[in-house]
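INFO batch 0412 | record 1 of 1 | parsing
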Amino acid sequence: MKKLASLALTMLPSLLWAQSGSYTIQGQLGTVKAPAKAYLRYMAGSTVKLDSTTIQDGKFEFKGSVENPVKGMLLVDKRGKGLSRTSPTPSMSVYLEPGTVKVVSPDSLKNAVVSGTSLNADNQKLETALKATNEKMEKLMQEYRSATAEQRSKKEFEESLDKRYEAIEAEQKTVYAQFIKSMPQSLVSLDALKSFGGYAPEYGDVKPVFDGLAEGVKNSKAGQEYTAVLNRIKATSVGELAPDFTQADTSGNAVALHDFKGKYVLVDFWASWCGPCRAENPNVVKNYNEYKTKNFTVLGVSLDRPNAKEAWLKAIHKDNLTWTQVSDLKFWDNEVAKQYGIRAIPQNFLIGPDGKIVAKNVRGDALGKKLAEVLAGQP
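INFO prediction complete | emitting tokens
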């Protein structure tokens, strides 16, 4: 009897998740007035949806329908000037699922509490658990933004920030792990797992955590999609045979990964618009020049935007990237990037002469050290 009851409770959320239906988001943000606007951004399949509405006396409302519950982002621009790439807009996550979701705050999104549906109640627990580490991260970001160009240029400053960032990130990872373990039956735990894995998840880290989720979560539409992601992560893990690919170079000629078999090749994902990528390029150039005569080369894969070939070529020339470069100019839809599960750049994969992945995401000093290690004894 107890086992049957437990099974029923485990299955219930999956039955609820399968339901499609209408949602309403009702917001109350103190006395925020027009021209302030609220935005709701979410994915509908592979399409990004963006809804907006004005805020009157702190009140706003969104209505819509979903086939499956989806995590969205609620943003509020108090100036009413629209979303901007250069000026961050306050935001918070919210789950779109059948029912009425309430977002209430005495003043702003920062202090908002979300309630009204089961997934949003679960997510509010996660946000509460993350509050301390999120505040630490925001303080660190403010410190970076307020630093002068001279301060940012100093290696000591950069290393100090990186070390503190990694420490906070480790704290957040612990919070995610504890939440997932305590609520394996919640779809929120699947999204928490994605954050737990980070921008470049390791199969050995995330697969055991995924296996610990309730069957209803793993068998949901989102769970099945993440299973496909796990398969891509596994296929690009250290020790695996690197997935082969073919893409056009700067002259339109087809270049395949297997063309480099017999050499160590660093498959480097980057783009002309990516600041961190451009900052890392001198390090890649330095190592390429040092080891190019020792059976080593680089193959650049650019995630440049459509109709931006000129910017891509200009960046190659300016950064002195003399190795082979390929791209389909599809931005984040770059076919090779999707094949390798790339969700952030820069990223790289060091592939050995046998076609197997030797290392991943080795940058800065780590790149030189790894190359010195694997190329020792090369003629």
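INFO post-check: Residues 118-146 form the longest helix (29 residues).
INFO record closed
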